[in-house]
Design a protein that fits this description.
Blueprint lengths: L2 H18 L9 H8 L6 H4 L17 E2 L15 H13 L22 E6 L7 H12 L3 E6 L6 H13 L6 E2 L30 E5 L2 E7 L3 H5 L1 E3 L9 E2 L6 H20 L1
């Protein structure tokens, strides 16, 4: 992350903290005041500005863009803080620079070809039009990686859309369950951290992937990972991963989400 981006993040966090620092009523304890300060929720408008409007150079930086489909009304912009603070965590854990752009990406445009990883999440069913599908198919053949994340976390119309829509991008493709013994993806969750393998326990269900020319090009997680990345208050020295919103706000569980995605990002950038 560049110095400018880091300064913008710090300034952003300070602004939010200041906005929440209302005068405490007489007799209110510091614990009660701290609880209120830590419950600041970062919304879409604030989240989309994280990283600064001036930083548009994506070269030599890790990034992930969320997709804004042209068709239907899927809530593609749910969990608005998920990607910015996931990338923030990847930067802190790897020391590698990141580029944060939280605006929805039109994959039917040429802008798709400036990205290496794109991400789609929603609670709803979804589909791509002919131009989006054509672009994605070409982009995947050129080495792009698509991550699909079911925001409902219990099986939903989003999950039902995965196989047929990926089949349009990669004709004849079939989903393969990701298992640790599969040599093609064995390193996906071991690049930096040794973490629980999704599907090996009761907390996470198995990911799936779709091959293109022998490369895992499309990944699907049914675990609502974005909900595990999102935050309601910026990270601080005493709480370096921020206060969570989804999955019960359990920081122990959120730490696992961050480790999993950091591993996967390193895998996607190197395969």
């Amino acid at each position: 992350m560049s110095c400018r981006t880091f300064v913008n993040l710090v300034a952003f966090a300070a602004t939010l903290t200041g906005a929440g620092a209302a005068q405490a009523p007489a007799g209110e304890s510091w614990v009660e005041r701290a609880g209120k300060l830590n419950s600041i929720q970062v919304g879409r408008n604030e989240a989309k500005d994280i990283g600064g409007k001036e930083e548009r150079d994506t070269r030599n930086k890790l990034s992930m863009r969320r997709i804004r489909p042209r068709k239907g009304t899927p809530d593609w912009d749910t969990d608005p803080t998920a990607i910015p603070f996931m990338l923030y965590q990847v930067d802190k854990r790897t020391g590698l620079p990141v580029h944060i752009n939280n605006e929805g990406l039109d994959v039917g445009s040429d802008a798709l070809f400036e990205e290496l990883i794109v991400y789609l999440t929603s609670h709803e069913g979804w589909s791509f039009d002919e131009k989006e599908t054509e672009n994605l198919s070409t982009w995947l053949k050129r080495g792009g990686t698509l991550l699909l994340d079911d925001c409902y976390n219990k099986g939903s119309p989003f999950t039902d859309s995965v196989a047929p829509e990926v089949g349009k991008m990669i004709p004849g493709s079939k989903p393969t369950m990701m298992v640790e013994s599969d040599t093609g993806v064995a390193d996906a969750f071991k690049m930096i951290y040794q973490t629980v393998w999704p599907g090996a326990g009761l907390v996470f269900r198995s990911w799936q992937y779709f091959l293109l020319d022998g490369r895992p090009a499309v990944f699907f997680t049914p675990n609502d990972d974005g909900c595990g990345w999102e935050i309601s208050t910026p990270p601080t020295a005493s709480n370096p991963i921020g206060e969570g919103i989804g999955h019960g706000g359990d920081n122990g569980l959120r730490e696992v989400f961050y480790k999993l995605i950091t591993n996967w990002m390193m895998f996607a950038y190197s395969h």
